[in-house]
Amino acid sequence: MGLRVEHAGPLALLQDAGRFGVRRLGVTQGGPADLHGWAWANRLVDNAWGTPALEITFGGLKLVAERDLTIAVAGGDLSATLEGRPLPLWQPVSLREGQALAFAAPRNGLRAYLAVAGGFQAEPVLGSVSCVVREGLGGFDGRGGKLADGDRLAVTADAGRRVQEKRVPAAECPDYASPATLALLPGAQVADFTGDSLFAAFNRPWRVDDRADRMGVRLTGPKLTCRIGSLISEGIGLGAVQVPPDGQPIALLNDRQTIGGYPRLGALTPLSASRLAQCLPGQEVRLAATTLERALSGQRRFRDAMAG
């Protein structure tokens, strides 16, 4: 074992890169809501892409090391402390047996990612350990369980190995409290929205609603009108922005349903979906149309940085 849960907090889940190739079965993707923060946490401790890490939402989590570990915390600032002192973020940290690691209230962003050198260990379900609570799949127990008091997290044998100090570029450490501009690829139904609605969608600010979770984030703002009331249900990808009859968009995230019948403006890029996942209720965001070429270029640069 590697870490013991003294206090679980509201939501801490084990996530690898996600569960793919199973949507035909009605099983959703899972994986880290903030792919960017999760990937950097793993990169900082020299873990390969896809290594399971812990996603901590809202804080409230206290862990005790049961052996020496090398860890890194990236993503949101949840007032993390090591033995009561502020924990350095976005860099490797040595954790000694018996030391306590705690996450309190969100200070900047909503979700933090804790990676351990070598990764956490859990039994894959349908090819992934990603935890989807609603579907009862994955996680540390294989049954979609979020962490509870007294749980113990297993790590690999080399979890205490030393890693080379890395300097994360300043641009890769976002200020999650600042207004976010979210890149959106226009979708097949975009031309069915009225001209006024399209102007408003891309030129007016939106607010993150308090109805937000790993399934999706509702945005409040101008009412969007589409000439199509509903569609035959079709597959839903990560970041899809559906517009239900009330005209308020819903950006769908990792634990989304696999099919849906509302018209869509398009889809957020994976990195924009990650950025939205760090926004607190009431935070301002804007939508910005992008091209497939630009979206692919940004994603390739990100993946190249993780492989470097």
From TrEMBL:
Keyword Hydrolase annotated: yes
Species: Halomonas alimentaria
This protein's name: 5-oxoprolinase/urea amidolyase family protein
InterPro entries: CT_A_B, Cyclophilin-like_dom_sf, PxpC
GO MF annotation: an example: ATP binding
Gene3D superfamilies attached to this UniProt entry: Cyclophilin-like
Segments forming domain Carboxyltransferase: 24-306
Keywords: ATP-binding, Hydrolase, Lyase, Nucleotide-binding
Taxonomic lineage of the native organism: Bacteria, Pseudomonadati, Pseudomonadota, Gammaproteobacteria, Oceanospirillales
